[in-house]
């Protein structure tokens, strides 16, 4: 790794450490990729992640061989871990889209340091999420039946089912996220192509850069395309998890059918997504020594978004509990009784602890700017958001309106195997990404430098004080 | 760069508003002596009260969000929004008439009376109310007059405190130009928003949702509160764009700031539409008897179904389409037009949310309502509106209409994000 160092560490409010130049930014970010040595730590992490990925391979292979009976699902709980994990992973992806699209449109310049990385996280999270509905079908090779295509056996999707909307919501989301990520990469791929010294990397980056030469017309088209994709991606931040919430709310299962679900699911998705961005960003900025690019100011802002969305989620829990009492409807009351005193109570208490109580620490600036504490809280929120979906799915399906349709559920070793396996898939993809593509947008980082603003007001590296902070 | 509008236009509008307001209130009060119109006086009053309470409370949310996130648009709108928030004492005062008409307005209030005094059933107002009802008895600890009034006092107390502090500190900021005051405002705004959301949610349940005491929806508070914020924002944008014709200094607001106001107005409209449509879609898909009556009254009963369709088209589709084109946002006249149009739609939305609750109890609305009642409704809404507007304009002209303190890095006018 080249020895590019800023003058000093970034102070509060600065989104890039002072002292960087156009050259030093390019060098520092691309050296992580174009470096002949392979760090032992990276290799060890990849080996570990790959081992977990193999758990997925084994669990999925055995599942296809034996069938869905190896999972814990049963009647009445036909949606077990698969749906819990699907919602969890899809939710995680949302932070990337929010950072890349909405924060771009809101002109939040601090997003520049984290958007590439977060978008990659989105893609990998969607890939993991996609596994679950496919495997849950039992016969994944018939997945194309979900698509409306002309056929002779009278097969047609049920358009009134939110599950069908999900297919389109998630596939649109994956497509737009991929395009957005790739379009944003093109100028940087050209930089890597131009810096590459061996034939292979020149060819690969050259192909991916699609002939980018950085001419004015290229930049002009790039800006238009990127702006359009951002506008396209923005409604997706809301629509995908809204449709996911319909999977539950459209049914009249107790605890699922409630009108607050769409906004509360969207907030929960962003909440868990930012928790995951922090879980990944905090070690990465440490290991790759890029604290001058991902500063404590970034951590502070992300923690504030987490606090805000966490409070919205808490509002959701609160209004559900209140409305259960207010409704005077015995089925609504039974749902809350089940959560507070029934079989699902420990999961529910844990979820309140993880998602509502612990994150209140984020009110303190010290907590928001201390990476180690923030890292622990982000892990707790990740766990809490998984538990939330567990309580929603399992809690309601095991306690339907009629006691005769009550049941029990617990995940089997194969449920856990697939879940841990997707974490392996996620980490493997992420580690490869960190090594082969620039994890921070090189050309966008340069726009944060004073050099990029020859007629600026002399505080361009600063985050405009109050004006662009977030909540 | 402070600007107190010296021209007489504001004063004359204020005078017209005051006269219209008083005339409207007199018209509404006439309903008290016209046979069969008494209930409608209070019901119309409730619509007007809810509409303009939203216009007085909504600004607090926008001001506090602006302190936390920044942005030129909010800086420029802040004095206008603050003036709107200073109308809260008026709205507290205008709540008082409802105290005397609780039984005409709230079914649960009638039930409370009948529950304690079953003999009242003989009176026409209480006819048909069962003295025992499992659901309403369950809700008595919350839905009773005493506790309701206590809650209203608490709501106005909390909103008033927030408005008082934000207004006072902002005046202090104007005088001292001290950044620490700005930090103090931000420190209040974070917990302030939490308290705001909670009070507005419960207030919307109390003032509007409880009109149909057996109906419930968890998104209602968010939907109703979003409507209030939209009302407040539309009024502020309309005010500032219209006044900018008359005062030279307000012409500083253009280009990017204008565009941002247009974008935000569009965003608030989308959020309102999103929350409203989510409630509809989930209840429509669920199709269960506990939830359906609310939409049956509003979407299947003749006068209201057309209002519902009109809301979709005129409260959402038309302003959304207009704001999606950049020209509207850079064109003062059109932006003012769209903002005023949204204000008008807010009236229709509030009427649609509140009034169908009453005719459920009376079956056919058109048949049972005397013709004069329509005038009473209009009088109450226009009356409260006129009084509110007069107070708002009085407050608006009592302080500079643009902030003189601009924090570092913010509000360079057109250059900041050029």
Structure description:
The complex is a heterodimer of chains A (471) and B (418). Chain A has helices at residues 22-33, 40-66, 81-105, 115-136, 162-195, 199-209, 216-249, 261-287, 296-327, 330-341, 345-357, 365-369, 371-398, 413-436, 442-446. With 471 residues, chain A is mainly alpha-helical. Chain A has a single domain (22-145, 157-452), classed as Up-down Bundle (Formate dehydrogenase/DMSO reductase fold), CATH 1.20.1630. The longest helix of chain A is centred in the middle third of the chain and has 34 residues, at 162-195. Chain A is globular and about 70 Å long. Residues 456-471 of chain A have low confidence and may be disordered. By secondary structure, chain B is mainly alpha-helical. Chain B has one domain (8-106, 143-397). Chain B is built from 17 helices and no strands.
Question: Can you give keywords for this protein?
Answer:
heterodimer; A: 471 residues; mainly alpha; Formate dehydrogenase/DMSO reductase fold; 15 helices; 66% helix; globular; disordered C terminus; B: 418 residues; 17 helices; disordered N terminus
How would you concisely characterize the structure shown here?
Chain A contains 15 helices and no strands. Chain A has 471 residues and is mostly helical.
Output mean pLDDT of chain A. 89
Give the count of helical stretches of chain A.
15
The amount of helix of chain B comes to over 70%
Summarize the biggest pleated sheet of chain A: none
Number of helical segments with 4 or more residues of chain B: 17
Biggest sheet architecture of chain B = none
CATH class of chain A: Mainly Alpha
Principal-axes geometry of chain A comes out as: globular
Strand-helix topology:
The complex is a heterodimer of chains A (471) and B (418).
Chain A: H1 22-33, H2 40-66, H3 81-105, H4 115-136, H5 162-195, H6 199-209, H7 216-249, H8 261-287, H9 296-327, H10 330-341, H11 345-357, H12 365-369, H13 371-398, H14 413-436, H15 442-446
Chain B: H1 9-30, H2 38-69, H3 72-85, H4 88-99, H5 102-105, H6 107-116, H7 134-139, H8 145-176, H9 179-207, H10 220-243, H11 255-286, H12 292-299, H13 302-323, H14 326-330, H15 332-361, H16 365-368, H17 371-397
């Amino acid at each position: 790794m080249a020895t590019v160092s800023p003058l000093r560490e970034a102070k509060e409010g600065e989104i890039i450490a002072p002292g960087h130049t156009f050259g030093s930014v390019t060098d520092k970010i691309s050296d992580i990729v174009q470096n002949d040595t392979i760090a032992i730590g990276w290799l060890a992490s990849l080996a570990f992640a790959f081992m977990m990925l193999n758990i997925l391979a084994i669990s999925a292979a055995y599942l296809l061989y034996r069938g869905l009976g190896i999972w814990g699902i049963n009647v009445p709980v036909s949606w077990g871990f698969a749906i819990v994990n699907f919602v969890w992973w899809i939710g995680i992806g949302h932070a990337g889209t929010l950072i890349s699209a909405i924060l771009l449109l809101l002109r939040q310049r601090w997003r520049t340091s984290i958007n590439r990385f977060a978008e990659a996280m989105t893609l990998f999270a969607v890939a993991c999420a996609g596994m679950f509905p496919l495997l849950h079908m039992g016969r994944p090779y018939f997945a194309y039946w979900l698509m409306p295509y002309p056929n002779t056996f009278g097969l047609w999707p049920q358009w009134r089912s939110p599950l069908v909307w999900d297919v389109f919501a998630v596939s649109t989301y994956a497509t737009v996220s991929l395009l957005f990520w790739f379009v944003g990469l093109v100028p940087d791929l050209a930089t890597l192509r131009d810096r590459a010294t061996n034939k292979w990397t020149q060819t690969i980056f050259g192909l991916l850069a699609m002939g980018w030469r950085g001419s004015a017309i290229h930049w002009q088209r790039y800006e238009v395309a990127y702006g359009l994709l951002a506008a396209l991606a923005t409604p997706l931040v809301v629509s995908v998890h809204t449709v996911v919430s319909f999977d539950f709310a459209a049914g009249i299962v107790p605890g699922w059918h409630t009108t607050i679900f769409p906004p509360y699911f969207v907030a929960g998705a962003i909440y868990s997504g930012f928790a995951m961005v922090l879980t990944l960003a905090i070690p990465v900025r440490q290991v790759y020594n890029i604290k001058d690019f991902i500063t404590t100011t970034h951590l502070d802002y992300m923690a504030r978004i987490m606090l805000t969305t966490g409070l919205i989620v808490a509002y959701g829990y609160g209004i559900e509990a209140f409305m259960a009492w207010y409704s005077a409807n015995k089925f609504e009351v039974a749902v809350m009784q089940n959560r507070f005193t029934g079989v699902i109570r420990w999961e529910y208490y844990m979820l309140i602890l993880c998602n509502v109580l612990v994150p209140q620490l984020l009110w303190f600036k010290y907590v928001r700017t201390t990476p180690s504490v923030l890292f622990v809280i982000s892990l707790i929120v990740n766990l809490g958001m998984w538990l939330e979906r567990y309580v929603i799915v399992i809690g309601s399906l095991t306690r339907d309106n009629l006691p005769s349709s009550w049941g029990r559920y617990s995940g089997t070793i194969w449920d856990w195997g697939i879940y841990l396996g997707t974490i392996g898939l996620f980490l493997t993809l992420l580690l490869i990404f960190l090594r082969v593509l620039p994890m921070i947008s090189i050309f966008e980082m340069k726009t944060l430098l004073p050099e990029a603003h020859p007629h600026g007001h002399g505080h361009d590296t600063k985050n405009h004080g109050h004006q662009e902070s977030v909540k | 760069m402070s600007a107190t509008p010296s021209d007489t236009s504001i004063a004359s509008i204020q005078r017209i508003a005051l006269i219209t307001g008083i005339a409207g209130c007199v018209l509404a009060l006439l309903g008290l002596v016209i046979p069969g119109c008494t209930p409608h006086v209070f019901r119309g009053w409730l619509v007007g009260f809810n509409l303009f309470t939203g216009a007085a409370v909504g600004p607090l949310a926008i001001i506090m969000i602006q302190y936390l996130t920044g942005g030129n648009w909010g800086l420029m709108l802040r004095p206008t929004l603050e003036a709107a928030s200073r109308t809260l004492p008026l709205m507290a005062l205008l709540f008082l008439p409802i105290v005397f008409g609780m039984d005409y307005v709230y079914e649960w209030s009638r039930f409370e009376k009948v529950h304690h005094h079953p003999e009242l059933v003989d009176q026409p107002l209480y006819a048909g109310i069962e003295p025992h009802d499992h659901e309403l008895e369950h809700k008595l600890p919350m839905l009773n007059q005493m506790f309701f009034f206590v809650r209203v006092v608490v709501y106005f107390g909390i909103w008033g405190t927030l408005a008082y502090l934000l207004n006072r500190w902002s005046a202090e900021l104007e005088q001292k130009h001290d950044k620490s005051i700005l930090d103090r405002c931000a420190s209040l705004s974070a917990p302030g928003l939490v308290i705001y959301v909670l009070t507005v949610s419960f207030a919307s349940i109390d003032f509007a949702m409880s009109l149909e005491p057996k109906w419930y929806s968890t998104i209602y508070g968010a939907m109703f509160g979003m409507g209030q914020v939209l009302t407040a924002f539309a009024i502020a944008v309309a005010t500032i764009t219209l006044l900018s014709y008359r005062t030279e200094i307000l012409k500083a607001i253009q280009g990017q700031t204008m565009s941002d106001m247009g974008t935000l107005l569009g965003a608030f409209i989308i959020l309102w539409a999103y929350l409203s449509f989510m409630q509809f879609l989930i209840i429509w898909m669920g199709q269960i008897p506990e939830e359906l009556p609310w939409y049956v009254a509003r979407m299947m009963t003749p006068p209201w179904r057309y209002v519902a369709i009109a809301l979709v088209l005129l409260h959402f589709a038309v302003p959304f389409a207009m704001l999606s084109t950049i020209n509207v946002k850079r064109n003062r006249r059109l932006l003012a037009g769209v903002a005023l149009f949204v204000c008008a739609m807010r009236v229709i939305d509030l009427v649609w949310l509140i009034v169908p609750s009453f005719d459920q109890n009376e079956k056919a609305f058109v048949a049972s309502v005397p013709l004069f009642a329509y005038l009473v409704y209009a009088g109450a809404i226009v009356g409260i509106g006129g009084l509110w507007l007069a107070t708002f304009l009085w407050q608006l002209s009592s302080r500079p209409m643009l902030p003189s303190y601009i924090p570092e890095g913010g509000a360079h006018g057109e250059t900041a994000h050029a």
